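Weekly sync, protein design subgroup
Attendees: M.S., D.O., the rotation student, P.L. (late)

Item 1: inverse folding check
M.S. brought a backbone from last month's batch and wanted to see whether the design step gives back something sensible before we order anything. D.O. pointed out we never logged the input encoding, so this time it goes straight into the notes. Structure tokens as presented (340 positions):
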């Protein structure tokens, strides 16, 4: 008997990206994202506008994902969607759409935790990419989250450290805003950091015990630093922008690497997988590659398209849950504060 192929439609709408992806037996056939540029004008995500944009985008994005995958919706084995964590209005759009589609096609519905998905994105089949071996440590770094997670198996994860205030992506974005950079500022700081001196300016690292992080103090330190320097020289930012970006990035990466070193020494696990938007940062990627040479760590760095919010990561979790018959019902509701 020929084994039937498993097709999963993944839907992601937790923040400001409406995304859909079709996966067949662990391989991604399409990965479509509609990013919402409307938030740029406000320097951050406006929840009300995000949910409206999801409403507009969701059907065209799903249509496009099916088209690019070259399949009709009737071949789908299940629909997987992000249940949380995220913005409630945004989550409701993807959740309601996924429920209706699964209901009308009479196929199973699979709920996905967005933070688990950032980690399990490492299990998407990709030629030349070696998947992490269990157990490993996952560091998820994005605009909404900063966590270190001990991963013993696909669905056996424990959060061993997390931010007590701002997420690391916010540290990049808010610092960038102070410097007059656009939103999101992470990629721009990354670009400018390559041209600057990381030791030009010193910012004190927060003293948070254990594996937790804090980034709000750094933001305040940068605010006062820029204010004071601009009183002495009104063109201070303009004249030193690359050095400021390099110094901020250096400080942030060194905070992340310090905690990773502590996590490795506490757990004895030196396989490190990163995920989330900030894992696109070239300085962080370089620091991990250096740790491989210096400390013998094995870093797992995902392809760019699977780092920032995407639906391929939702579809892979859907696939992993499908093969163990882990389905949900039509009573499911979105959860903005869902834990791993
Ligand atoms: O995972 P993501 O797309 O969405 C959230 O779940 O938040 O992450 C977005 C965050 C933003 O804060 C953005 O500035 C940051 O990721 N980011 C970067 C880089 N690319 C994106 N931060 C630093 N360097 C980058 N290259
Ligand atoms: Zn995310």
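Designed sequence read out in the meeting:
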């Amino acid at each position: 008997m020929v084994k039937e192929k498993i097709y999963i439609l993944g839907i992601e709408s937790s923040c400001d990206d409406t995304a859909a992806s079709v996966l067949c037996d662990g391989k991604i056939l399409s990965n479509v994202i509609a990013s919402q540029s409307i938030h740029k004008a406000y320097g951050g995500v406006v929840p009300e506008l995000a949910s409206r944009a999801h409403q507009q985008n969701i059907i065209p994005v799903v249509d496009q994902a099916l088209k690019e995958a070259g399949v009709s919706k009737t071949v789908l084995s299940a629909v997987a969607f992000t249940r949380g964590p995220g913005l409630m209005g945004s989550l409701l759009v993807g959740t309601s759409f996924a429920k209706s589609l699964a209901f009308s096609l009479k196929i199973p519905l699979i709920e996905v935790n967005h933070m688990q998905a950032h980690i399990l994105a490492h299990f998407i089949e990709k030629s030349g990419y070696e998947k992490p071996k269990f157990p490993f440590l996952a560091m998820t770094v994005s605009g909404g989250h900063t966590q270190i997670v001990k991963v013993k198996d696909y669905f056996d994860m424990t959060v061993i450290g997390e931010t007590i205030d701002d997420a690391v992506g916010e540290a990049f974005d808010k610092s960038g805003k102070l410097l007059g950079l656009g939103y999101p500022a992470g990629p721009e700081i990354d670009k400018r950091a390559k041209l600057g001196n990381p030791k030009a300016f010193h910012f004190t690292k927060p003293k948070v015990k254990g594996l937790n992080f804090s980034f709000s103090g750094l933001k305040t330190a940068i605010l006062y630093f820029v204010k004071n320097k601009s009183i002495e020289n009104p063109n201070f930012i303009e004249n030193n922008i690359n050095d400021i970006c390099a110094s901020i990035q250096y400080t942030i990466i060194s905070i992340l690497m310090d905690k990773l070193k502590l996590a490795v020494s506490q757990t004895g696990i030196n396989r490190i997988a990163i995920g989330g938007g900030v894992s696109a940062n070239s300085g962080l990627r370089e620091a991990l590659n250096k740790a491989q040479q210096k400390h013998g760590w094995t870093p797992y760095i995902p392809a760019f398209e699977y780092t920032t919010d995407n639906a391929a990561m939702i579809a892979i979790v859907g696939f992993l849950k499908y093969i163990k018959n882990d389905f949900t019902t039509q009573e499911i509701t979105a959860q903005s504060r869902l834990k791993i």
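Discussion: The chain has two domains: 7-121+307-322, 131-301. The pocket of KG4 (ligand 1) is lined by residues 15, 142-144, 169, 172-173, 184-187, 190, 276-278, 280-281, 308-309 (CB under 6 Å).
Action: P.L. to compare against the previous round before Friday.
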